[in-house]
Amino acid sequence: MTLHESKHAGYTDLSRLHQNFLGENDAFQPGSPPPGSPTAPGSVPPPGVPLPGVPPVGGSPVARSVVPVAAPPAAPQPASRLFQRVLYKHADLGPLRSDPDRRPPAGEDDCFDQLARFAESESWSGPVSAHRGLPGSAQHDELWVLREYIEWTFERLHQQRQVITSPDGAYSLFNTGLATSQQETIYGLFVPSRNPDGAPWQLAGWYPESERRLPDHFPDLPGFATYTESPADFVYDWRRELTVNPKHLLESQENLGSLPDPLRSNPYQASLVLEGAVRRAEARVRRSYRVAVPCWDPAAERVQLLLPLALTTPETVDVALMVSLEGDAYRGAMILGLDVAYARARLIARPEEWLSAK
To answer: pTM for the whole thing?
Structure first.
C-alpha cells in the first residue's frame, strides 16, 4: 500500500458521486416512451384484472401471491426529487410514503411496502451510519434501501434496453432482480396510464414469473440487470498495489462528514487514523477476499470495491473505503457511510461479511 499526500488527476468529483446515488442529480436521461405505447388510455382492463380470455389460475390475483397496486388518481405528479429518476418518468407508482407531497392515507401501504412483503424476507433499513442524524445528513426509513435498489436497478435496465413492451402494446415489464420466498423471480408490470399529463405508464403490480399474463404477452421475459462483463471485477486482486491519499480524501467535506466523532472535527487526527485503518483493511482483505465487497458506482458506471475501515475500535467498522481499479493499481476514491455503502452494494448482491444491514 502506498499513502500519497499529493493530488493526482485520477480522482473523481466525490461530491457528485454521492449526490448522484442519493438521487439529487439525474444520472441518465430517459428516452422516448417505449415503442408500441398505446395512445388510447383505458384500452386495457384495470390493474389486477385479467385480460379477456385469460382466466386467473388458482383464484384471484391476491390468492396467487400477486400483489396488485391500486390505480393512482389522475392528479399530476409533483416536481420533486423523486421524479428526476427514470423510473418515475416511465411510470406512475401511485402515492409514495417517501414523497411528502403525495403520500398514501394513514395506515395504507405504498408499492414498496407491498414489494417488501412479497419478496423473500430481507432487512431494507440498511446499517446505521456514523453521520446519521447530523445536520444535512439523509433521513432514512425502514425501506429506503429497497427504494434505492428498485430505482437504480430500473435505471440500469433502462440503459441496457431491458425495460420491454409487449408486442400488443398493452404492457411494459422489468425484472426486479428480487425473488419470492419460493425463489420465483419478481417482475414489475405496467399498464398504460389513464393520466394524459403524467408518465406514459402506471404500475399494475409486482408479479411472480408464474403469472399467466407474462408468458402470454411477452415471448421472452426480460433478464436481470448486469454490471460488468468480467467476474474478476467482483474480487479484490491482492497482487495489485493499493494507493490512498488521506489528505486528498479529507479535503472533501462529504468524506470528512462520514467519519465518526471526534475525527470529524479534527482532519489531522483523522488523516493519521485513516492511514492505520487502511493498512489494517488491506491486511484483512489479503486474509480473505470476501472482505472486499463489490458495489455499483452509478456515476462512474462501473463496479468498485468497498473495504472496511475500523477507526474507533478494532471490532467496529465505522465507514467503507471505496477503491477503484485505475491501470494496474487500486486507488482510494471515496469514504462512504455504511448506509450508503450498503445501498450501493445491494444493487449487485446482498452484502455479506462486515457490511450487514443488522
So the answer is: 0.73
